[in-house]
């Protein structure tokens, strides 16, 4: 027997399957927003219910524990990460590697709640899944970059490519932790991720080619590191630009 919900006319009616699916989606989207802002451990079930506009009892009907919400969100994060790491439909020209990196940092912004250790303490069963996802992701990133090399859009020997993949992954994965633990950043903004994007892009710049030729582009001089937008503009389009990550 379905649960009862209040219709728009104020009458009680049985909750349909479509209602349950829609409510579940709203819960997950609200949780992603709240978890991104404050971290899963800091968000209460009462706050989640209030954000969705339902009772805590209704929330528990869909998810009995907050850990279940984290796992459901990780399923979506995993699918998104798999899609980005494949590097499908890379654009022509020597800006391809920049767009590829930009997509990584867009993903980091949209799912930043998963770029910290606390979420895995809340849902420890996700740790082996994260490790497996990392292995698959690194392999796909390397394949995508190897295709850029084959197309003449990057110029790097295989051993160099291996180091680039590992170093870029380390920076991208632990950038938010670095901001919080080493820079004292309490609230991560897009500008902070633009700063991280510039760090990763700097790894690839010496190997980027001009116009798809095999000649590496000489490294440009860099200003002193800092989270300002000017730091990003020295490296091309990044998360701080208006058309990156939807503005």
Task: Please write out the topology.
Elements (H helix, E strand, L loop, with lengths): L3 E3 L5 E3 L2 H22 L6 H8 L3 H7 L3 H21 L9 H15 L7 H5 L3 H25 L7 H25 L7 H15 L24 H5 L14
Helix pairs in contact: 1-2, 4-5, 4-7, 5-9, 7-8, 8-9
Mean pLDDT: 77
Q: What structural class results from the helix and strand content?
A: mainly alpha
The SSE string, one letter per element, is: EEHHHHHHHHHH
The percent range for strand residues is: under 5%
Q: Give the termini separation.
A: 46 Å
Q: Give me the CATH architecture of the largest domain, please.
A: Orthogonal Bundle
Give unreliable regions as ranges. 1-13, 212-247
Q: Strand order, biggest sheet?
A: 1-2
CATH topology of the largest domain: Tetracycline Repressor, domain 2
Q: What does this protein look like?
A:
- This protein is mainly α and 247 residues long.
- It has 2 domains: 4-64, Orthogonal Bundle (Arc Repressor Mutant, subunit A); 67-233, Tetracycline Repressor, domain 2 (Orthogonal Bundle), CATH 1.10.357.10.
- The protein contains 10 helices and 2 strands, in the order ββαααααααααα.
- It has helices at 17-38, 45-52, 56-62, 66-86, 96-110, 118-122, 126-150, 158-182, 190-204, 229-233; strands at 4-6, 12-14.
- Strands 1-2 form a two-stranded antiparallel sheet.
- Helix 1 crosses helix 2, helix 4 packs parallel to helix 7 (126-150) and helix 5 (96-110) packs antiparallel against helix 9.
- It starts with a strand and ends in a 14-residue tail after the last helix.
How would you summarize this macromolecular structure in one to three sentences?
Residues 1-13 and 212-247 have low confidence and may be disordered. This protein folds into 2 domains: 4-64, Arc Repressor Mutant, subunit A (Orthogonal Bundle); 67-233, Tetracycline Repressor, domain 2 (Orthogonal Bundle), CATH 1.10.357.
């Amino acid at each position: 027997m379905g649960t009862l919900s209040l219709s728009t006319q104020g009458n009680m009616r049985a909750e349909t399957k479509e209602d349950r699916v829609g409510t579940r989606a709203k819960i997950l989207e609200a949780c992603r927003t709240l978890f991104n802002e404050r971290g899963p451990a800091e968000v209460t079930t009462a706050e989640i219910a209030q954000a969705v506009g339902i009772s805590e009892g209704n929330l528990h009907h869909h998810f009995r524990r907050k850990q279940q919400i984290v796992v459901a969100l990780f399923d979506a994060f995993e699918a998104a990460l798999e899609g980005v790491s494949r590097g499908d439909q890379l654009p022509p020209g020597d800006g391809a590697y920049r767009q590829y990196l930009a997509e990584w940092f867009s993903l980091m912004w949209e799912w930043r709640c998963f770029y910290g250790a606390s979420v895995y303490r809340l849902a420890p069963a996700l740790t082996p899944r994260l490790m497996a996802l990392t292995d698959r992701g690194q392999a796909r990133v390397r394949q995508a970059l190897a295709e850029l090399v084959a197309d003449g859009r990057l110029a790097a020997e295989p051993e160099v490519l291996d180091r680039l993949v590992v170093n870029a992954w380390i920076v991208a994965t632990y950038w938010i932790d670095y901001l919080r633990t080493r820079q004292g950043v309490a609230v991560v903004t897009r500008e902070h991720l633009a700063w991280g994007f510039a760090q990763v892009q700097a790894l690839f710049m010496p190997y980027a080619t001009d116009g798809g030729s095999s000649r590496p582009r000489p490294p440009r001089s860099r200003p002193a590191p800092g989270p300002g937008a000017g730091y990003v503009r020295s490296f091309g389009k990044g998360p701080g630009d208006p058309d990156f990550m939807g503005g």
